[in-house]
Design brief:
Layout (H helix, E strand, L loop, with lengths): L12 E2 L10 E8 L3 E2 L6 E10 L1 E2 L6 E6 L5 E8 L3 E5 L6 E5 L4 E6 L6 H8 L5 E9 L2 E4 L4 E3 L7 E9 L2 E3 L3 E10 L11 E7 L5 E9 L5 E9 L7 E9 L14 E9 L5 H8 L11 E2 L4 H6 L21 H11 L10
Parallel strand pairs: 3-13, 15-21
Antiparallel strand pairs: 1-7, 2-4, 4-10, 5-9, 6-7, 6-11, 8-9, 11-12, 11-13, 14-16, 14-22, 16-19, 17-18, 17-20, 20-21
């Protein structure tokens, strides 16, 4: 990933000197030791380097290090190291001559201690690693590492119902409703771990959950589409209700945003004693038992805060899925089995 594609923005400094070595002592043989750094799980970067040359009256400057993606034209400062340089007489006329140690020096830095908050956030949330070289600078000379380091790439997913609808939106108690929903991640794909589930609830006019139909697995790594047919419970009184879809209701996945997991839509239960003609005349819509009108699912922060997961009866047609490690083939088979008609009988 290139620097100019970062939207959040790595804070960089410009005009990193890249002239040829003009100072008498200069850095070289810059080698990044750990070329894979899955930040934030690992944060310590190690760089080996040598110092070469000699000079008179050493100014005691330090070696400065920076991460760069453009060959050193700009960079992100990651601290400094003291060069191992010794000075003694021996120069012309007894002047002091300074020479660096011939041994390899290693610079170790914890990135949390040197990066800005914006840069730490960008690395921690990145879905793929950022690739950098390291630039070592001493006085007016500098050297680029001959290898690169990949940092980050462990960003968390953000599961949500990205689109969805159900029909009909006017029904009699005991009739069926077909839900179509697509679940995806708004951030990074989930490449491993326990898959989240898509749960279906019924809520009353006050948006209190009154029934849990069950849940079905979401396919890793990017999500899946679901078609689920559910019954409106027999015995429901006429009035306004809500169909509620909740992603990862048991919080098995650490997400970048936990406040967008719920989607919902309004549904009207009508009196079954009313005639189809009366219904059509009053509402100017199709019969309650035909395809009816479609309601699109919406997602708000307020709904996410309102809905909780009480202990509710479970419809056996959508069986509870135990949280476990599953591969993609198992999930695909499970989806085919569970995305079925949910039967109204109460589970014993």
């Amino acid at each position: 990933m290139k620097l100019d594609k970062i939207v959040v923005g790595f804070l960089t400094t410009t005009a990193l000197c890249s002239q040829a070595a003009l100072a008498s002592i200069y850095p070289g043989n810059v080698d990044i030791v750990n070329t894979e750094l899955p930040y934030p799980n690992q944060k310590t970067l190690e760089v080996d380097y040598h110092m070469f040359g000699s000079e008179i009256f050493n100014n005691g400057r330090t070696v400065n290090f920076a991460l760069t993606q453009d060959g050193g034209k700009s960079g992100i400062n990651i601290g400094r190291d003291f060069a191992d340089i010794s000075c003694g007489s021996g120069g012309l006329g007894g002047t002091m001559r300074c020479v660096p140690s011939s041994s390899t020096q290693t610079y170790r830095v914890n990135l949390d201690s040197v990066l800005s908050e914006n840069n730490r956030t960008a690395l921690a949330n990145s879905c793929v690693p950022y690739e950098f070289k390291v630039k070592a600078s001493y006085s007016i000379s500098s050297a680029l590492s001959f290898n690169t380091v990949k940092i980050g790439g462990l960003g968390a997913p953000d599961w949500l119902v990205s689109s969805g609808s159900f029909s009909p939106n006017r029904v009699t108690a005991g009739s069926q409703v077909v839900i179509n929903a697509e679940v995806s991640s708004a951030n990074c794909a989930q490449k491993s771990g326990t898959a989240p589930t898509l749960a279906v609830y019924l809520a009353n006019a006050s948006k209190q959950l009154i029934y849990f139909y069950g849940e079905t697995p979401i396919r890793l790594p990017n999500g899946s589409r679901h078609t689920i047919t559910i019954p409106m419970l027999s015995g429901l009184t006429a009035g306004t209700y809500y169909l509620v879809l909740a992603v990862d209701r048991t919080n098995v996945v650490a997400e970048t945003n936990e406040n967008n997991n719920v989607a919902m839509g309004k549904i009207t239960v009508i009196d079954s004693s009313a005639t189809e003609q009366g219904i059509a005349a009053k509402s100017n819509v199709q019969s309650a038992n035909s395809s009816g009108l479609m309601t699109y699912l919406t997602r708000t922060d307020e709904d996410n805060q309102n809905f909780v997961d009480p202990q509710l009866p479970v419809t056996p047609g959508m069986k509870m899925l135990k949280s476990k490690e599953t591969n993609q083939d198992d999930l695909f088979n499970a989806i085919n089995q569970l995305d079925a008609v949910a039967l109204p009988e109460h589970q014993e």
